[in-house]
Amino acid sequence: MLADITNNISRSIWVNKMKWAYRVLRFGVSFFIILYGFAKLNGSQFTILASELDKPMGQVSGFWLTWYYFGYSSVYGNLIGLVQIVGGVLLMFRKTTLLGSCLLLPIISNIILIDIFYRIDLSALLVAFLMGFALIAILIFHKKELLEVFWSRQNSLFPNQPSAGPRMFGKYAVRALVIATPAVFTYWVANYNNRLPTPLDGAWEVISIMPQNAASGDSLTKIFFERNRAFMCVFKRKDGSYEQHHFELDTNRRTITIWDQWLRKGNQIFAGTYELSGDELRISGKFVNNTEETKLILRRRE
Questions:
Q1: Closest to 67 in 3D by CA, of 38, 34, 44
Q2: What gap in Å lies between CA 210 and CA 217, rounded to an integer?
Q3: Cβ(204)–Cβ(300) below 8 Å
Q4: Does the bond joining 56 to the residue before it have cis omega, within 30 degrees of 0?
Q5: pLDDT digits 0-9 by tens, 48-94
Q6: CA atoms within 13 A on the CB side of 107
Q7: How far apart are CA 251 and CA 254, in angstroms?
Q8: What is the pLDDT of residues 141-162, one digit of tens each?
Q9: 3-state SS string over 46-91?
Q10: Which helix (H) or strand (E) holds 187?
Q11: Which of 213, 215, 210 is nearest to 283 (CA)?
Q12: I need a surface site. Which of 9, 95, 118, 189 has the fewest CB within 10 A?
């Protein structure tokens, strides 16, 4: 009898400790996630520095790229903040803790991945890790409910009918096609539709243009022959503007032709020949509004 009483007391103490741990996890995550939510709503996150906006995108750190991306749309940033606040409020009520945890875990997991791969502040990563582990611990308290919702009682509306033979094979064939078709299609788009490699692919700085006049395009500072957009050629002007054009090469004759509009072509704006020697590219030809032959010397940019 005494042993039973002792066991009951020990069990009661253990249960009370678990309840307190459960509360601490819930309210701890709730506090920090609501803090981050209001930080977005009140403008202390996703704000960008003017000095960072002045840098070329290739020189901007992952932190500032992330901040600029999420802060580009104030509506989107505020929605993220609101979802975090709602999730934090749900955690504070016993009845909605499971719902709040299921809502917040994917959000926190995404934050952890962004913090790691975009090299966000280390302290922010540590806080995200702690919240992630806390949410997992909360969900462990609800493992029975989770198993019921996501496994045991799945498909109660449309019960699974056992199948065998051709029917089973057909089901797995459809599943395989649903995976394989997008994989093959997107591979084709990336490597064959979007790309048609040429010897000129890359970024080129304009070293010299002869003759020096507006008709010969002397305002050009860079030319981009885009590897990831077949036929796209982009001119950068001295005023910082960019123009997208369509280009085609004849590698046997070493000729280059440029039209006004990418893919649609439109009016032809340049026709000539090219010579490629290492990182130096020489282009000779005529712009349509120039009677003189233009000679450009370009150097490949690292």
A1: 44
A2: 9
A3: yes
A4: no
A5: 888 898 888 888 999 999 999 998 998 999 999 999 999 999 999 99
A6: 22
A7: 5
A8: 999 989 888 887 776 666 667 7
A9: CCCCHHHHCCCHHHCCHHHHHHHHHHCCHHHHHHHHHHHHHHHHHH
A10: helix 166-188
A11: 210
A12: 95
